[in-house]
Amino acid sequence: MSAQTFKILVTGPFAAGKTSMIQSVSQTHVISTDVVTSGDESGVKSHTTVAMDFGTYRLHGDDTRLLLFGTPGQARFRFMTNILKGHVDVVAFVIDAEATETHAVAGVELRALARDLRVPAVIAVNRCDDITVARRLARSLGALDGEAVVPCQLIDPDSGREVVVEILLTLLASMESTTAEVA
Amino acid sequence: MLHNTRTADIAALTVDGAQPVWMTLNEARERAFTGELVFEADPEVLAYLDNGIVYYAERATDVSLGRRLLDAGVIDIGQVERGTVRVGDIEHLGRLFDRDPSVDRDAVVVLAETSTHDLIAELANRAVTTVRVTAYRHHPSGVHRWFVAPLDAAAISRPVITVAQLGTAVVDELPGLSFAGTDADEFMIEWDDQIDETDPLNGTPLNGSPLTGPPVAVFDEQFDVADVEAAQVIETVGETVGTEPEPGTEIDTDTDTDEDLAGFDFAVLWPDGSEELATSATNDTVDTNHTNDTAVTADASEPMLVVGLAPPGAVAPIFTQSDGGDLRFELPPLTISDDPEAADADVPDDVAVAVRRAIAAIEAAMAATPEFAPRPEVITQLPEIVEIAPLDEFDSVDAADTAWPACLDRFAPPTMATSAEVLYAQMADDGPSVDAAAPAVAAPTLAGSPAGGVASVVFVDEPVEAEHDDGIERSSALRRLIGSLRRKDH
Lengths: 183, 490
Fold this sequence. Notes:
The complex is a heterodimer of chains A (183) and B (490).
Chain A: E1 4-11, H1 18-25, E2 31-36, E3 47-58, E4 64-70, H2 78-84, E5 90-96, H3 103-115, E6 121-126, H4 131-140, E7 148-152, H5 157-182
Parallel strand pairs in A: 1-4, 1-5, 5-6, 6-7
Antiparallel strand pairs in A: 2-3, 3-4
Helix pairs in contact in A: 1-5
Chain B: E1 2-3, E2 12-15, E3 19-20, H1 21-30, E4 35-39, E5 45-50, E6 53-59, H2 65-72, H3 77-83, E7 85-87, E8 90-92, H4 96-99, H5 105-123, E9 127-128, E10 131-135, H6 144-147, H7 153-157, H8 169-173, H9 225-230, E11 232-235, H10 257-261, E12 266-269, E13 275-277, H11 280-284, H12 288-294, E14 307-310, E15 318-321, E16 327-330, H13 340-343, H14 349-367, H15 420-430, H16 434-446, H17 453-459, H18 462-489
Parallel strand pairs in B: 12-16
Antiparallel strand pairs in B: 1-2, 2-10, 3-9, 4-5, 4-10, 5-6, 7-8, 11-14, 12-13, 15-16
């Protein structure tokens, strides 16, 4: 049995809940590049990711591993997303449903992300419990019809794990459809 | 009838004689009245109209509108607090919806409309003798704003100050220019170069008057604003050569540099010490704006003059005039440092430390991944290709000299148990990998074994099968991962 590694890129606008999602599943201490926020961003949260977050999950007695890469939310670090999105198995785009002021920027980012994406994507709508509302929001921001949308409360680690499970299920479905096409 | 019973400076009207309220309201509508009507009933009823339409009415004894909204349950006390503007004794609700978007505007408006409708309907057929009329007086709570839309919402919401603001930054950063007096009837630009205003045909001045006096404004006829903004003239006279300019030496900032530089040869001195004489074609490509701004003109008797032009923070080429009169410029050598501290000079310390920590951790994690470790067992040792013997030579092959795989147990007549698929599956189960078993199987087959089907399994089907197996294995691993994460949910 060979080692299998799956990589998830967690991206989205500032303060959407990306780091929380990674922390909810990571078995190792999340390698975080948080620094103290400054300017207007300091009014939203005290620390923010500047390069990336990195978390891992590994099966016991198995070489199967899950790596989670979280990108910074600020637009000035958007190049990180562009670098990483081609080298992962699946992309999770996190949106805060209640932070309406971020939705315009999130829409631009989401459409830019989807433009040349070669891997499946999942839209995680944070601070939202209604799948209908989540889907409507995701579609309004430019999510494609085939992309999975998951409402979640990422402040709760259980909810974060459920999102990761949905992400992996999406990846599994993509892999199996690819296998079927090849066959 | 409504008529003015008082002096014109008091905008109050009264109704003479009793008449039903509806008639009064009807006349007010016909006159497109805007203001307050007070029907002196018991109790008094106050009606507020806009353009002849009653938008709000209440009894004088009614509690305040805010209290009524609270009592009706359409808003809560917090919304009232947030939505009310208090100025002295005034409690203004006109901006309720603007100040608190959570207020259900429809519910509030419907409640006000309903209470107004009920009151007017109750009062409509009653005869009221006295009606006090005050034009353009609205309800003190500001409810008028709820019902009457601004005439031009866009114009009101967009302050004039934000419509067009002239940017003064560029003008402010321009070098000191002297302009003609502002009291002139028209703005004039006066050039430092005398403009030939003579008629080219007869040589007389075009305006019919002789040219007068020196110009008052001194600047180039053409200049690039971006260059002017970024330009930082570096005058290092003496710093480079250790010679102070003599007192009285004038650094001429005039723009007529072509003439001054006409006698010089230009050469480029590269950092490695090589020298390249500039050609005339090269001179043609020099940006005239820059040469004008640079303005390298000084007394030729001075031994050295160094004047440079560079944007802030940039490495500036240094123009050098040698003793022989040649004018050169040289670029300081570029230095590339591997020192991480130097590379991070512009990055805040905490950011740099955080990034380094993350990269180091990720590299460590990746290095420990078996996926990235060398896997020599995967590399297949292909068997030597042996020429296939002709069919009639098959019988001469000595089966004992060939290395048969144990699973074949020497040659035997083919049966279902020795079919290629079964053998392949058996080998896959026995060996560590298909690749490792391949040479042992392939060699005898290529040497001419009649059971050649085995070889075709190894060489033709192996990549597809391996890829398929890898996909299955990966899917299986992913399922285990999902299962593990799901178990953690419970």
